[in-house]
Each structure stands twice: as structure tokens, then as C-alpha cells.
Design goal:
Cytochrome Bc1 Complex, Chain D, domain 2; Immunoglobulin-like; seven-stranded mixed beta sheet
């Protein structure tokens, strides 16, 4: 029997549904109300492997720990461990907590064993990842020593050394080994003993300073004892002056070289312009550096860390528009090279069109529908398109109308306040649109009130080529568009409607009537939760390539959006846990989907 091959029409919708499935999973919960992060952790918390409080294999090294801190910790905990890193505000807004690592009650009461456990396993309830998979035990001890050393700033060392010499040296010795001239035959604690180091908090050490007759002459007050305790702990690791900023520790032997090219015919030279290189890890931007394009059009960044958990992305501002290079990572090579393309700029909106537009109703509930609008923009000129500056000086390029009743507006990737911004009922993109038939894609997600019938009208700012509406089969219907059939979508189906005539030759309005009453209890396999789960399962079990495509596209401007993606994944995990507990999911589907979500969450956090 001859095997039937899918038509190009069918393949188009397979690819579209792939992308929409991934966007739905990572960008929108489908629920009309946001849930608190604390609610997302039940009933099944994320399992983590128990990590024993291993002793350091060798003396922890502050210098090595500083490099790790700059990559893994600085974005949240800040340059000096005060919990004020660039990602701290966003994590707190998601219901997490960023600890103050230096000078806090926490830092005084926690033993090194406690510290090691948290760094290894994380605190999922505080939205802190664990690093047992990405850092060796020695790495974890090294970064802890850097944190402790921040509590012994170099400017306080002379006074601490004098105080130690006056009050402690006679018994405990110059190196804290318990072998001072007054120790005699008494066996005293060695401050470099790893067992003692691991199980003694600063508060414990401080209390010991005023315990027993041997300490009767100690006259230090509590803040002085805490400072001395931090100094005493330094005998248990290889101390060096902590960097004023951990960024200075983020150095290596990697070289990144970019060729900056103006792709517009007869475009001007970009020599002499500055290029910013941004360095990201899973929590966001870690540090950035700037270099200048030479006369040959090349810009070089040296002494970069080649940590596999880091990736680099360059950007260049030219003619008022920002142009991005591709994200890059070091592998086994010492040098990576790529091209950074820029274009001359046009302000003419006639160069922009929308070859494809899809209106996807991905969730239906009592009193609401959840919508994904997917736009594919073309720029057929040889210039990059920008419009103008907003009243606040924000760059404008593409514009999309927003329904007046839309709520919970989000985007696939950087959202409002990052890449997109809103003025009235118009959403503006702040990225320049490079030339190309598929120059930019945008997916906008939102909820609309719905009570059994509605006219949907969408105002388009640019000419439209092909457009359609996709809805869950059997839930709603459209009477004034052509029903072109059903496309399988995991355990359910999506019905596709298209207009009788072609798209809009000019900017204008698209309209259709949505009918049907949402039901409180739909038939098995058709409820909106199952549809949403289908999107997630499809994305993970069948269409990994689509997942990669969407994420590479989104990684152009990642400023802080890992936090949003983490929350979206936590929400997905909580949703399927709740459905499984209620008996709405087969166990096999539940286990496979949950494991896929867990793997993706670990990828983000590690």
C-alpha cells in the first residue's frame, strides 16, 4: 500500500501548532487569574537528590570561589552578597526570596554544613536553584569561602589581626591551630579543622569567646565578636582579598571575535563604534564589557571565562536602532567568531507586511477565552525598519493593537517593560526589524471575557497576506469564516477557519463572529485543561526541534526572562499534578509529561 505523504497545507499547520504548543507552555497558563508561586509547589514538590554535607577535599580557595560567584550567584545576591543583584527584584515579585549573605542573622546562625546543603540542593520554596549537578563539591566549598571572605573585608584585617593577637594568639597560636605558648598540654580546637569548620556557625564561635574561665578576659562586644568569628573562620580556607566586585573575578582565556558588517548596499562603515558584549547565565545577565570596532570592521573581546554555563551576546547601536548578534558559547575551543550585522535604517512603514497571521484560541473557560495571536512580519526592503521614538524616548518599531478588554497580556519571550511597551491600546516593539521575508515573529497572549457569543475584531496596522482562526474542535464555532477542517492536536483536535477572500491589501480590520456556550464540564478529553496539557505533551514528546527554534528566537533579548520561564514551568507542573490527583490524567501520560517539564526546569536552573 502506498504511504500517503502530508500535503504542504498540512505540514504548515503541524509546524504552526508545534510553535503554538511551545509558546503556550512557556508563556501562558491559560487561567484567568494568576496563581502565587507558593501555590505552585504542591502537591508534588520538585524532587532533589540528597547531598551529604561532605567535607572539603582541600582547603577552600577564595580566588577560585570568586569566579564561581560571579557566574552563579552575583545576578541574584549582588556584588557584595547583600541580596540586591540585578535579578533580585524580579525574583521577589514572583514570590521568591533572595538572601542577604553577609552581615545578616542568617549568615550568623547558619553553619557551613547548612550553607553547603543549600548550595547543593537549593531552596525551591524561595526560588533558589541547587548546584549539585553543575558544581563539584570542592567548587561549592570554594564559592562558600568567597562568601565568607566578603565578611572579612581587607580594610578590617589589620584591626582584626591586632585583636586576635591580643586576645587569642597566646592559646590558639598564630595560625589558629591551638598550639599557642600558653596552651601547654591542653588540647585546643584547631580553627582549620574541617570537622570544626563545617559544624560551627559564627554565632557558635562568638558564644565560645565568652564561655569558660579561659575567656574571662575577653572584652569584645557582640559586633566585635562576630567580626572576630568571621576572621577565625578564615583559618579554615585559603583567604585572599575578595574583589570589590565579583565581576573582576570573571576572567578566563577565551577570545570572542566579531566581524561587524553593514549589510545595506553602499552602507556606511561602522568602524569606531562601541559594541557591548553581555554575559548571561541561567539567572540573567552576569556582566558586560565594551570594545570598539577597528578599521577592518572587527571587534575583539579577550580574557573571557569559558564556563559552559555562560553564553555571550553582542549588540550595537547604529542610526538609533539596536542590532543583536547571535548567542554564543565556548565549547572546547579558546576562540569563537561570528558576524554582527547592521543595516541602514528606514522609517517608512510601507516596507512592513504580515504574510501570516494566526488567531489561536488555546483555552476556553467559564466566562473567558485565552488567545494566542501569532504574527509573522516581513521587511522586503534592504534597510532595517524603525518608526520613531515614543514620548518617553523609547524606540518604536512594529505596532500591534490590543483589545480593550484584554487582561493578563504576555509575550513569548521578553514582555511588557522589556522588549514591548504599551501606549493606550497599542503595543509597540522596541526591536528594529531587519530585512527578510520572515524578519520577526511575535506571539501575544491574553485573556478575553466571553459569555456565549462575541464579535472579534482585530485592527491591523500593516497589509495582511494569509490569516486564519484556530479553535478547539467541538467547543466553539465560527459562522462567517470557511471551515477548512480539523488538524490533530495530541489527544484533541484543532478546527481551522479561513476567510473566503484573501487578506488585506492595506491596513484595516479583520472580524469574525465566535459562537458557542462554554460548558462547565466538557466531555472527557475535550476540557480546556486537557487541551492545554496536550500542548505541553506535544511540545516535549514529539516536536523537540520546534522547542529549540522558539527558544533560540527568544534568546535575542533575555534580560531577566528566565524568571518568567521558571514560573511558567512551575505552573505547568502544578497544573498537571492537580489534574493527576483529581483522576483526570492517565498515569503514563502524567509521568512522562511531568518528567519532561522537570528536565526543562533543571536545564534552566542549572
Amino acid at each position: 500500500m502506498k504511504q500517503l505523504q502530508p500535503s504542504s497545507h498540512q505540514l504548515k499547520y503541524v509546524l504552526l501548532l508545534t510553535i503554538l504548543a511551545v509558546i503556550t507552555l512557556s508563556g501562558c497558563s491559560g487561567a484567568p487569574k494568576a496563581r502565587q508561586v507558593s501555590d505552585l509547589l504542591t502537591p508534588a514538590p520538585i524532587p532533589v537528590s540528597a547531598v551529604e554535607n561532605q567535607l572539603p577535599g582541600s582547603l577552600p580557595d577564595v580566588a577560585k570561589g570568586g569566579t564561581i560567584y560571579g557566574v552563579k550567584c552575583l545576578a541574584c545576591h549582588g556584588e557584595t552578597g547583600q541580596g540586591n543583584g540585578p535579578q533580585a527584584t524580579k525574583i521577589k515579585s514572583q514570590g521568591g526570596n533572595v538572601a542577604k549573605l553577609v552581615g545578616s542573622q542568617l549568615s550568623q546562625d547558619a553553619t557551613p554544613a547548612d550553607w553547603f546543603d543549600v548550595v547543593s540542593n537549593g531552596r525551591i520554596d524561595k526560588l533558589m536553584p541547587g548546584f549539585a549537578q553543575s558544581l563539584t563539591p570542592q567548587d561549592r566549598w570554594d564559592v562558600l569561602s568567597y562568601i565568607w571572605a566578603m565578611g572579612v573585608p581587607s580594610q578590617t584585617l589589620p584591626s582584626l589581626q591586632r585583636s586576635y593577637a591580643d586576645a587569642c594568639l597566646a592559646c590558639h597560636g598564630a595560625a589558629g591551630k591551638g598550639d599557642g605558648p600558653d596552651a601547654g598540654s591542653t588540647v585546643l580546637t584547631s580553627f582549620s579543622d574541617t570537622q570544626w569548620l563545617t559544624h560551627s556557625s559564627l554565632a557558635d564561635i562568638s558564644k565560645a569567646m565568652i564561655s569558660g574561665s579561659a575567656h574571662a578576659k575577653v572584652t569584645l562586644d557582640e559586633p566585635q565578636r562576630m567580626a572576630m568569628a568571621a576572621y577565625v573562620r578564615s583559618f579554615g580556607y585559603r583567604y585572599s582579598e575578595p574583589a570589590v566586585s565579583a565581576l573582576s573575578a570573571a576572567v578566563g582565556d577565551g577570545v570572542l571575535r566579531l566581524r561587524a558588517l553593514n549589510r545595506t548596499p553602499n552602507g556606511e562603515s561602522v568602524a569606531g563604534l562601541p559594541v557591548a558584549l553581555h554575559t548571561y547565565n541561567a539567572t540573567g545577565e552576569v556582566f558586560s564589557r565594551t570594545a570598539t570596532i577597528d578599521q577592518q570592521g572587527t571587534v575583539t573581546f579577550e580574557a573571557l571565562p569559558r564556563d559552559p554555563n555562560l553564553f555571550y551576546q553582542a549588540d550595537l547601536v547604529y542610526s538609533g536602532a539596536k542590532f543583536f548578534g547571535a548567542p554564543m558559547q565556548f565549547s572546547t575551543t579558546l576562540q569563537i567568531s561570528d558576524t554582527l550585522s547592521v543595516y541602514e535604517v528606514t522609517n517608512d512603514p510601507s516596507v512592513i507586511s504580515i504574510p501570516e497571521y494566526h488567531y489561536f484560541i488555546q483555552d476556553v473557560g467559564e466566562g473567558f477565552i485565552s488567545v494566542v495571536e501569532f504574527y509573522s512580519f516581513a521587511n522586503l526592503s534592504d534597510h532595517a525598519y524603525i518608526n520613531k521614538l515614543s514620548t518617553e524616548g523609547q524606540l518604536k518599531s512594529l505596532q500591534i493593537s490590543l483589545p480593550a478588554e484584554a487582561t493578563d497580556v504576555t509575550f513569548d519571550g521578553p514582555g511588557l517593560g522589556v522588549r514591548f511597551f504599551q501606549e493606550g491600546q497599542t503595543i509597540y516593539d522596541s526591536d528594529a526589524v531587519p530585512p527578510g521575508e520572515q524578519a520577526t515573529t511575535i506571539a501575544m497572549l491574553y485573556n478575553l471575557p466571553y459569555h456565549g457569543g462575541s464579535e472579534i475584531s482585530r485592527l491591523m496596522s500593516y497589509p495582511i497576506g494569509n490569516w486564519d482562526v484556530l479553535i478547539p474542535d467541538g467547543v466553539l464555532r465560527i459562522t462567517d469564516l470557511k471551515d477548512t477542517g480539523v488538524q490533530p492536536f495530541h489527544t484533541s483536535s484543532i478546527r481551522i477557519y479561513t476567510p473566503e477572500s484573501a487578506g488585506l491589501a492595506n491596513a484595516g480590520k479583520l472580524s469574525f463572529h465566535l459562537n458557542g456556550q462554554p460548558r462547565a464540564a466538557l466531555v472527557a478529553g475535550e476540557d480546556h485543561n486537557t487541551i492545554a496539557l496536550g500542548a505541553g505533551a506535544l511540545a516535549f514528546t514529539v516536536l523537540g526541534a520546534g522547542l529549540i527554534v522558539v527558544r533560540v528566537r527568544r534568546s535575542r533579548t533575555l534580560e531577566g526572562d528566565f524568571t518568567k520561564e521558571r514560573e511558567a514551568l512551575l505552573r505547568q507542573i502544578a497544573d498537571i499534578d492537580n489534574r493527576f490527583s483529581a483522576g483526570k490524567l492517565p498515569e503514563t501520560d502524567y509521568r512522562q509529561t511531568r518528567q519532561a517539564l522537570m528536565d526543562d526546569l533543571r536545564d534552566i536552573w542549572e
